[in-house]
Amino acid sequence: MPSISNEQKIDIEEFMPPLTVAVITFIALIVVFTAVWAWQIKSKNAGMVDPVWAMSLGAVAVLVAVLAEGDLHTRVVVGIGGFVWGIRLGLHLWKRNAGHAEDPRYHKFREQWGADANKKMFWFFQMQVVISMLLSLAFFVPAYRATPPGAAWVALAAVIWVISILGEALADHQLRVFKADPANHGTVCRTGLWRYSRHPNYFFECVHWVAYIPLAIGVGAWIFAMLLPPVLMAWLLMKVSGVPMIEAESAKKRPGYADYMRTTSALIPWPPRHP
């Protein structure tokens, strides 16, 4: 019977097939979001799910990069890219939500659900697990490719990633500075990127999920799975929990927001139309 060398044993122990890593990821996310759900029962602030979602998904990128069987250099790019994105966005959302009143979106859910709020909030939090697993395809597919993508594809991925991270960070910073000025209370932010898009932060968030597609060029039919994360993110932001709820609230409370909606692109930055 042939013996197994120490090096072969290490390889067997260190790397796992995609289904095994997916199961580990799924269980870990269930634990994380259940803990956050329990936390919100006491804090009455379900908005803290947002920073935890970003940070946990960044951790998923690292987990996949470490355990996957694919090309090492591609896994390093995926791990770093996902981790930096998750930490930056997570810290931004944490600073915005921690110690403040509950996000109006979640507060509205709590009011609508009444006595069933905690039970329904539990399943809402578990839905974040499903969404995170679907988005993590952006990490899984390139991390399991056997050979590295071409240098040009890696460069393209890096350019898209940098643009998305810097663009989203700039949009967040511009809005934060605008809100910090008491003179702007109750008014509509039309400065910087917000002059060209009502939600430039959402636009660059969608672009971020496009950044991993070049890393998967050459993996065969699995390349089509890479389209799901950016499409899913755009759909969630534009049709579900992002734009519809935020703009309904803003149109009620901020004079001039209706005009802002008529003249400014909802997502893709574009020169404003004349009223």
Overview of the molecule:
- By secondary structure, the chain is mainly α.
- The chain has 2 domains: 145 residues, no CATH class; 127 residues, no CATH class.
- It is built from 12 helices and no strands.
- Helix 2 packs antiparallel against helix 3 and helix 4 packs parallel to helix 8.
- The protein is globular and about 55 Å long.
- The protein starts with 5 loop residues before the first helix and ends in a 12-residue tail after the last helix.
How is the quaternary structure best described? Answer: single chain
**Strand-pairing-aware structural class:** mainly alpha
What is the tally of helical segments?
12
Distance between the termini: 81 Å
Average pLDDT score: 91
| Radius of gyration from the alpha-carbon trace, in angstroms | 21 Å
Pattern of helices and strands: HHHHHHHHHHHH
> Sheet with the most strands?
none
What is the β-strand count? Answer: 0
- Low-pLDDT regions: 1-13
Defining key terms:
disordered N terminus; about 280 residues; single chain; 2 domains; membrane
Quick structural gist:
The protein has 275 residues and is an all-alpha fold. The protein contains 12 helices and no strands. The chain crosses the membrane at residues 20-39, 51-68, 74-91, 122-144, 150-171, 202-228.
Topology:
Elements: H1 6-14, H2 18-43, H3 49-67, H4 72-97, H5 104-113, H6 117-135, H7 137-143, H8 151-180, H9 200-210, H10 228-240, H11 243-253, H12 257-263
Helix pairs in contact: 2-3, 2-6, 3-4, 4-8, 5-6, 8-9, 9-10
Transmembrane segments: 20-39, 51-68, 74-91, 122-144, 150-171, 202-228
GO cellular component, one term: membrane
Pfam family, one: DUF1295
